[in-house]
Amino acid sequence: MRTTRRGDSQVVCGRRALLDELGISEGGRRATPERTGYGCGCPECVAAQWNTQRLEHWICGRLTAAGAEEAEVDTRVDDIPVDIYWRRGDRRCVVEVHSGPLDITAAREHRKRLQAAGIDDVLWVCPQGYWVPLVPAVGIADFAPAAGDYRIDQGMLAAGESGFAAPVRASGELRDFLQGWVTGEIHWGHADLRTGGWAEVGTWERHTAAQAAMIERQRNELRDQRVELAVSRQAVREKQKLVTRLHNRIDRAGVNADAEAITLAGVRSELVAQQRIAAGLRATIGRMDRTINQWQWLTCCAMLLTLTLVVGAAVLR
Predict the structure, then answer these.
(1) Which of 8, 99, 231, 254 is the most interior residue, by most CB within 10 Å?
(2) Per residue in 183-217, pLDDT tens?
(3) Sheet holding 137-140: strands in order across?
(4) How many CB atoms lie within 10 A of CB 202?
């Protein structure tokens, strides 16, 4: 797409004329003597509109061939315009054909209005894109195939190895899908929280069974985790009780240690006093020993002196 504007020419295609006035040109414009509004008149858009109308009438014929009791193109449901309306018994459904990207918000609001009007199901037939898994739609690769060989390349689901519904890689026939949809063998559902798709009843049964098995497994895991949590909490409570008892014992031991420390301090004080008394007594005893030794020497000297005097006196006689 080029972003140039050329005002010296007029455009046949209403869509291209609108883009041209906005300053966005797709190129390949054709001059024309006159143009009324934005009514499309170029061969490309006329062909696209014809392809869409042809697909609508083809779908209407396939629905009737598949067992629909009533099928009508370009009708209204409670003043709501729809592309295709069909009925089988009490079941009423609508098919909307879009050759361009699908507005998710508008599509969901349109579906809610139709469901409020009594429509059971709504199908969008549109090109492939991110919008296909978000609404009940099928993505068509080619809106102008040869011999009406319309094929679905996006929107179908199949059960995988795990049993869960997953997008189908291979394309399928649109006629086969319509046959299964009318007979009730194919339904749309959510594959996960946001996206969904079309699948057979057996696929949804396997998907539901796989979900039930996963939920049961998760429930068992949750129950085991709760049991483990309860056991852990009980063990924690027991350890807390043990720690509390140990703290109490430590506190009592601390009190006893403080009392024993006070007693030991008193004993040490008494021992120091006794050691002082013993030191004083040792000093006294030492002094007494020295005094006794001195008296002993004095006594010995006196006795020797006396003996000397006695001997001298005896000699002198």
Answers:
(1) 99
(2) 989 999 888 888 889 998 888 888 888 889 899 99
(3) 70-77, 80-88, 91-97, 121-127, 137-140, 151-154, 172-173
(4) 11
Q: Please check whether residue 25 is in contact with residue 3, taking contact to mean a CB–CB distance below 8 angstroms.
A: yes
What pLDDT, on the 0 to 100 scale, is given for residue 125? 94
- The residue type found at 101 is P
DSSP bridge pairs for 152: 140, 172
Per residue in 62-77, pLDDT (tens digit) is 999 988 899 999 889 8
Better-scored residue on pLDDT, 186 or 5: 186
Which of these, 104, 109, 178, 89, lies nearest to 134 by C-alpha position? 104
Phi, psi dihedrals of residue 266, rounded to the nearest 5°: -65, -40
Average confidence (pLDDT) over 41-69: 80
Residue 46 pLDDT: 59
* CA 178/CA 86 separation, integer angstroms: 12
CA dist 144 and 281 (Å) reads 132
State how far the Cα of 64 lies from the Cα of 296, in Å rounded to an integer: 154
In whole angstroms, give the CA distance from residue 38 to residue 19. 11
